[in-house]
Amino acid sequence: QVQLQESGPGLVKPSETLSLTCTVSGGSISSHYWNWIRQPAGKGLEWIGRVYSSGGTNYNPSLKSRVTMSVDTSKNQLSLKLTSVTAADTAVYYCARRYSDGSGYYYDAFDIWGQGTMVTVSS
Amino acid sequence: EIVLTQSPATLSLSPGERATLSCRASQSVNTYLAWYQQKRGQAPRLLIYDASNRATGIPARFSGSGSGTDFTLTISSLEPEDFAVYYCQQRFSWPTFGPGTKVDI
Questions:
Q1: Interface residue of B23, B71, B73, B97 to substitute, partner A, most A CBs within 10 Å
Q2: What pLDDT is recorded for position B93?
Q3: Cis omega (within 30 of 0) on the bond before B8?
Q4: Residues on chain B touching A45 (C-beta within 8 angstroms)
Q5: What parts of chain A have a pLDDT lower than 50?
Q6: Measured in Å, how far apart are chain A's first and last C-alpha atoms?
Q7: Which among A21, A37, B15, B35 is most buried, taking Cβ atoms within 10 Å?
């Protein structure tokens, strides 16, 4: 059973770079799209972007200038970097897998999620 | 950007009752719409994909319908564990989520 686990600093200073890692266990990172999604406390969900196992990326246009995602297949990990953070970036950050039925077709939904990691931006 | 609107914001019901949640898109998303359930302190859980397909392990009391701009999630008979927040999500251009509907007692 595939499981995802986010990790990284819980506190980041304004203007600095937020860096998170998501470790995939119980399955391979290959041939999947991996997404980052965030949720400010008490608010809704915002898609940050996705990275394919081969390294291709797509980002939310509103965050594109500050986001970098990558994948390390040898470690079964994906990473997120968000630069120049402000208090508005304070949120729970989730990694999530794009749903695939195993035949090579990818649906536009997220079937497996990590438990999330809280990141606070504050000095 | 495609904006999703969910109604009502809060739905107050009792166990055993039927819940009908609405999601409306600012432009057509065909049937590329998913529904999620989120309980406090937990990650969202995929319920429905492609508007009407139940995800693996989702009970039959959950059903989705709609196409284009108007979608509905129906819970036929609420169980105690169904009281949660429900989000819809589309994928045209890039994925966006609705603001959520809270189903409470």
A1: B97
A2: 79
A3: yes
A4: 44, 87, 89, 97
A5: none
A6: 39
A7: B35
